[in-house]
Automatic annotation (TrEMBL):
It comes from the Bacteria. This is Xylitol oxidase. The keyword Nucleotide-binding does not apply. It comes from Asanoa iriomotensis. InterPro entries: ALO_C, FAD-bd_PCMH, FAD-bd_PCMH-like_sf, FAD-bd_PCMH_sub1, FAD-bd_PCMH_sub2, FAD_lactone_oxidase-like, Oxid_FAD_bind_N, Vanillyl_alc_oxidase_C-sub2.
Length: 410
């Protein structure tokens, strides 16, 4: 009998017969050691069967955050199940900050890191790029720690939960800073075609929102650690709060209109206390080499009318390169093309093969935790053979495997 447990958007029911929510790491270790198959569950922001298991679904949400700040090393170590928004508040209270945050502060540290989730910024890496070390439970219940610089590290950060249950994560931190945010509306699409580098370089973090049905970019969200431009290629900043989804409540979004605020109250798009986006949705994202972005735009534009039929909004962001084996930004700077779909799986999954036929030949890598259909993604990762070897060594019996991971990784 399967659990009646769903992801946050209630678009996926987890395939697992048993759920456990340990309150301590020692309790989690005992549970892992005693189970035949285990998958970790964070804040349920995955849209697919990535967390499914025929055995034990182990929630990390009840593990304590227990923030440990090492100011000399410039690191903070936190419980894996902690939400980024909560970590950020605790860090800022002590005068420290993260370099980036995702659009949602509601996601868990371990889950976001394991899938390569990111914010935006030409010179800013993903959330995983800030990881200094991970502590995880192996198949026998023993704890092990893998740190930056060690041979297994680059394969152990973005690891899809396939190497064990992560319990603690050590992150790079820096002194707290202030950010200003403004939203610029109705920018000609031609700016993205002729001046993409200047557009995404206009601030510390830049997000483009559009629906593919017109020749305009509906909104550009700029987040700056300095001054904001008076206009953006002719577009001026909105003088009232704006949501990227028409008709959605603006009290859910972080402060705009150039009003300075703490980094953690500006870098995410949404406030921690509110439901992000609409909550009724599916999501897909494809991260492609920055050098291929114009080819991708040219390929997708003719598909615009079909995309718009099932789309709530597209967001385009940039992410700096890293060296993490299964990261979508491995080996080069990337551009993420994100789709927030209506909650209609049949229509969305009917469209995805056509989108992937255009983007995957350009080197686009699907976000591991979001909706996609291709099972031939392993070839997009030059270190995949190394990851398979690492997985076989640390989990030889496949305790942390599941059908989707096996299909994607091999």
């Amino acid at each position: 009998m399967l659990l009646m447990e769903f992801n946050w958007a209630r678009s996926h029911r987890y395939g697992a017969p048993r759920l456990a929510s340990p309150a301590t790491v020692d309790e989690a270790r005992e549970l892992v050691a005693g189970a035949d198959r285990v998958r970790a569950l964070g804040t349920r922001h995955t849209f697919t069967g990535l967390a499914d298991t025929p055995g034990l679904l182990l929630s990390t949400a009840g593990l304590p955050m227990d923030l440990e700040l090492d100011e000399a090393a410039g690191t903070a170590t936190v419980g894996a199940g902690a939400r980024y928004g909560e970590v950020a508040v605790a860090l800022d209270a002590r005068g420290w900050a993260l370099a980036t945050m995702a659009s949602l502060p509601h996601i868990s540290v371990a889950g976001a890191v394991a899938t390569g989730t990111h914010g935006s910024g030409d010179r800013t890496g993903s959330l995983a790029a800030a990881v200094r070390a991970v502590e995880l439970i192996g198949p026998d219940g023993a704890l092990r720690r893998v740190s930056r610089g060690e041979p297994d590290f680059a394969g152990s950060v973005v690891a899809l939960g396939a190497l064990g249950v992560v319990t603690r994560v050590t992150l790079d931190v820096e002194p707290s800073y202030v950010v200003k945010q403004a939203v610029y509306r109705d920018l000609p699409w031609s700016v993205a075609e002729t001046g993409f580098d200047a557009l995404t370089g206009a601030a510390y973090s830049v997000s483009l929102f559009l629906d593919w049905s017109s020749d305009r970019i509906a909104q550009v969200w700029l987040k700056s650690r300095g001054d904001l431009p008076a206009d953006l290629f002719g577009a001026t900043a909105a003088d009232e709060p704006v949501h990227m989804l028409a008709g959605a409540p603006t009290e859910a979004v972080t402060g705009q209109q150039g009003v300075p605020g703490p980094w953690h109250e500006r870098l995410p798009h949404f406030r921690l206390a509110f439901t992000p986006s609409r909550g009724e949705e599916l999501q897909s994202e494809y991260l492609l080499p920055r050098s291929a972005v114009q080819e991708a735009f040219a390929a997708l534009r003719p598909l615009g009318a079909r995309i718009a039929e099932v789309l709530q909004v597209t967001e385009i962001r940039t992410v700096a390169a890293d060296d993490l084996w299964l990261s979508c930004a491995y080996g080069g700077d990337v551009v993420g093309i994100h789709f927030t779909w209506v909650k209609d799986a049949e229509r969305v999954y009917a469209l995805l093969p056509d989108i992937e036929a255009l983007l995957l030949p350009l080197g686009a890598r699907p976000h591991w935790g979001k909706c996609f259909v291709s099972t031939e993604v392993a070839a997009l990762y030059p270190r995949m053979a190394d990851f398979r070897a690492l997985r076989a060594r640390v989990d030889p019996a496949g305790k942390f495997s599941n059908a989707l991971v096996d299909k994607l990784v091999g």
